[in-house]
Amino acid sequence: MFKISRLTDYGVVILRYLAKKGGASSARDLAELSGLPLPTVSKILKLMAKHKLVTAKRGSNGGYELVESLKTISLLRLIEIFEGPPAITSCMVDSLHKCQIHQACPQRDGWHMVHQRVAEVLNNISLFELIGPSSLRAAFPKGVV
Q1: What are the tens digits of pLDDT across the range 71-94?
Q2: Per-residue pLDDT reduced to its tens digit, 112-121
Q3: Any idea of the CA torsion for 77, 78, 83, 88, to the nearest 10 degrees?
Q4: Which of 38, 59, 74, 122 is the most exposed place for a label (fewest CB within 10 A)?
């Protein structure tokens, strides 16, 4: 099966702490809270800011904030940000390195169907669900998540 990278997993951790805080958090604060190295947290935040999951604010009250609720961010979206589109087989990714039979492959349509269903499942899982709705409701201020 496919495997989620550490960077994607760490992205979930950072988003959880951002939601819990409910306001702007510096990369340094998030590194401290999460136990992750500051360069890793900075890299994750910059990538998430580029893809408009978080916004960066400068100044004494600055830091990073969630742009939207965890309920509206799908697991598929996060995976695509950190890893690109999930692909069950290499022929599901546009690449210069296709297999030898890619044009006449009798199984391509079957793998395409599997790929679509996996992507659909990942798209229907919100980060709110992944992190755990009951623990989020208890830990976070009302309206944050």
Answers
A1: 999 999 999 999 887 776 666 666
A2: 888 889 899 9
A3: -60
A4: 59
